[in-house]
């Protein structure tokens, strides 16, 4: 079967689907620079229901704030006008299940319950920060500052007065371990984070029935470190290859998949 290149508009694939808004070019203009430095306090002040600024003795304010993870959409998919896209919580939930299914060759070297906990808290700061992506023009240091100050607020202010702050400190430590990415557990969860994105990429492309090419996200597969997760990754990319081959279209990101598949056959 002869593969045809996916049509493009100004270098970006134009798409249309019942799950999408009308045909568009998924490259958005740069966001205007904020006039004031980002702060937790400014975000809290804009919330419909203000959160406490002093440490409560009940975890209920923390519980309520977590709702934002259920309603805040993952930014990469939003840029492609995907209707009903996954939320931050959706992403972390599937990640947590994936950690439980680590191959025995890997799980025997891991603290799996700890990995699951890490998957569930690794994006918790996005409840206030939002899902910052590489195309947002926010420096890595600034992203880290925003997320760190948010985690301090969540774990020290909202949870600091709850049962002596023990659970809050544990959550903060697990989150920091993920950020530092030095332990095997952290490296595994980072890999699972990338794998979950690839799974969602294929899920959306299948839903789009050939009208949605998300190949720009395929590059994350090359950043996966652990061999066991690389094995899963190659399976996902093979599924994607078979899907697009069946449509007679050569999508973006094909070269990334082909490279990994060649390595798998060696």
In terms of topology, how is this protein built?
Blueprint: E1 4-5, E2 8-9, E3 12-13, H1 40-46, H2 60-65, H3 67-71, H4 75-78, H5 88-100, H6 104-107, H7 112-121, H8 126-129, H9 140-158, H10 166-180, H11 184-207, H12 227-247, E4 249-250, H13 254-265
Distance between the termini: 25 Å
Shape: globular
Main beta-sheet strand count, sense and barrel state: 2 strands, parallel
In DSSP terms (H or I, runs of 4 or more residues), the helix count works out at 13
Written overview of the protein:
- The structure is a single chain.
- Helix 5 packs across helix 11 (184-207) and helix 12 crosses helix 13 (254-265).
- This protein has a two-stranded parallel sheet. A two-stranded antiparallel ribbon has the order 2-3.
- Mean pLDDT is 85; it is low at 1-32.
- The chain starts with a strand and ends with a helix.
- It contains 13 helices and four strands.
- By secondary structure, it is mainly alpha-helical.
Summarize the structure.
With 266 residues, the chain is mainly α. 54% of the residues lie in helices and 3% in strands.
Entry keywords:
single chain; 266 residues; mainly alpha; two-stranded parallel sheet; two-stranded antiparallel ribbon; 13 helices; 4 strands
